[in-house]
Each structure stands twice: as structure tokens, then as C-alpha cells.
């Protein structure tokens, strides 16, 4: 009741235009000793100290004219929980076994630290709600990452590749939050596709990696001035973090395009193991399949070789060569190994569309998804969306289901393709289902919530 009253009080002081904004931050470092880290799946990499602390950061935007709109406040439909994807944080907090084997199952301390920090940062941001403005800016970050599977990227059509200058996505999109009353900036949020692997699998110190470093650099600068594939591996977090910070600071100081207009969202659960997809030519229907991992998953990547790094003969799971390392979607002992039901989500902030995806898209997969969503929005609205509409992908959001490669990349079965759980048509399924959300949003239509997402009680499921 107190929270709703605060929103109504703010609403009564506003003229019904613009946004309410709120920011919050809370420590979520977790157990710094004796807990295996999530990311590299290295049994020898357990926490033994802190490089720098991890934080949960919350940004809230609401329409002034819809103060009471919050109703029951924050739900799975209008909240996106997105990870920066460090490989140097305590593990044991995800509900599927394949992501918790090296931590020997569920770790209550890790889970509690994350949940508490997210909750407290939301509470803090909510109590800081005030009339404010949001500005958007974009720019390229150079030399901040490489494509670690360039041969797979080359399997994409030449005419498609010719449309882009690089095999990595160099674009950073930044939001700047400004308090209307004082004119002071209160925060910034950015999206940039690079992997959190600057800290190697031999590092035992908890760290936010290059993303966390960039955030720390930005916050220090901000205070003193009063104002998927892509991977970056170096001896420290500084080079990649420094480059991201420098670009973010530049975009922040030069941001002039204000976001205005409707705030909206769509959210649905989908059983990704059985989605029928109609291919673009309309002549064939295909299906996704239960989760499975190929041998390339065990081989690992250039910045994180796996237990079977010598495995070179990585074959496709296509009908002519069915090679599966682990049928994780059909393994349930002692509990489910991989997800079947996943959430996808679209958030709208005026002319900005955020696609919340529960995995890591390769460079070309992400480009195809953004393009398809923009086209759908334009074709189903009365001029409300156009080529100037901003589309960003928020990866690793709301849960985790590994990678999403293109159909062409899938055939080579490099690490990203071998970790594309639901078969060669996984990306097509994502595109089809996001097009449904985009059409509903453009037309102002509601959607069904989809199948129930099962939560397993893991408190007593440790593999010890």
C-alpha cells in the first residue's frame, strides 16, 4: 500500500506527460569462498576472494499518466532480469542440472544473495521514483571483441554478410536518465555485445569482469564529474572495460534524442521443445526438438576450452548425421537437466523496443531477430513504428538456455551451434514467436501467457 500511495502522490504532482524514473543498486557478491563459479564449468574454479564486488542495478520507467497502472506493482510480465554474464561469480543458483553440476547442485547462499539484491535494488529504485526524462544514443565500440567462430559465421549467405562491415556487432546503445526537477543525470544503462571472459577460468576471485569494470569506471567518472558470441579475452578486465566505459561516457555526454510516448510490454511462456515453424518460403513446416548438446559443447571455446578440447570431429545433428553428446531435454535424474519452457518478452519505451531473450544469440542470429521484429512492427502499425525505431536485444534475461545460432551456423557444430538446445530451427522459432508479440504490441492486442513454467524445489537437491 505504501508503494502504490507513493506512485499516486507523484502522479498528482505531474501534468500527465512524460515519465517517472527510478534507479537503485544493491550488493549481490555472494559467497566468496568455496563455491564453484558459474560459466567455465571448471571444477577447479571455486571462489577464493573478491576482485571487486557484484551489484544488482535496477532502472524503472513508468508513464506519469498511469501512476495507478502498477496495480500489483512488478510482475514477471513487466520486469526483465538481465545478467551481465560474468564467468567469475558464485554458481549454484539456476534450477537445471547441466548448469549446476560443477557447483554440485543448488547453493542456497548464492541464490539468496542474488534474489535479495534484485529485490532490494527494485525497492530502492521504486522509492526513488520521480518525474524524469530518458535520452537514447548509439555509437560503435571498436576493438572490444572478436567473433570466436568466424568459420561458422562465413556459412551465412554471402549477400547477407555483405550488408554488414564486421562479423561482430560493434554497436552500443545507451539510455541516459535525467531528473526533470533538478536537471541532473541520475543514471545510465547500456547494451553492448561482448562476452564476460576477460577473467580466465584460472581466476578464483569474484569479479564483474569487463562489464563490471566498465560500470565501475563509469560510476567513478560520473561521481567525480557530477554529471554471444563476441568475446574479449585479455590478462585483465581493463582493456575491454575501459573501451566500453569510454564509449558510454561519450554517448552519455552527447545524448540529445529524448524517448517519449507509450510504455508497453508483452510476455509469454513457450515450450521450445515442440514449436512448429513455417519456413519463410511457406512450403515447409518444421519443428524444434527436446534440448540436446553436441560434442562441440564439450570442446569449449577459444576463451574457455572445455574438458574435451581435442574433439575436432564435431558433427551436425541434422538427419544425415545425428550426433548428440547429451540428450539433456530427456534427462530428469536427479532433476531436469535442461529447460523446456522458456519466457520471451518485449518491452517498449516510446521508440525503443527491448527484446528479452533467455540465451545468447550469435551475431547474425541477433541481426535477423531485430530485423524481423522491426519489420513486423512497421507492417502492423499506423505509422507508429518506422525505420527509426530502436531495437535492442537483452540477452541472458529471465532465465538461461545457452545459445541460439543461425540454421547455417548450426551445420558446423562449433561451440555456439552445439549449445543451441532445440535444434537447427531454434532461431526460426524465436523469430516466429517474437513476430507474434510484435504484431500484438503494434495492434494493441493481448496475448495468452502460454504453458505453466514449473519451478522445482531444489533446496534439498544438492549432488553431494
TrEMBL record:
Domain of life: Eukaryota
Family annotation (Pfam families): Ceramidase_alk
Active-site residues annotated for this sequence: 231
Domain Neutral/alkaline non-lysosomal ceramidase N-terminal as annotated: residue spans: 69-226, 233-432
Entry binding sites for Zn(2+): 85, 195, 360, 403
GO cellular component, one term: membrane
EC class: hydrolase
Assigned EC number: 3.5.1.23
Keywords: Hydrolase, Lipid metabolism, Metal-binding, Sphingolipid metabolism, Zinc
Cofactor note: Binds 1 zinc ion per subunit.
Gene Ontology MF annotations: metal ion binding; N-acylsphingosine amidohydrolase activity
GO biological process: ceramide catabolic process; long-chain fatty acid biosynthetic process; sphingosine biosynthetic process
The keyword Cell division appears for this protein: no
Catalytic activity: an N-acylsphing-4-enine + H2O = sphing-4-enine + a fatty acid
Cofactor: Zn(2+)
Family named by the database record: Belongs to the neutral ceramidase family.
Protein name: Neutral ceramidase
Species whose genome carries this gene: Prunus yedoensis var. nudiflora
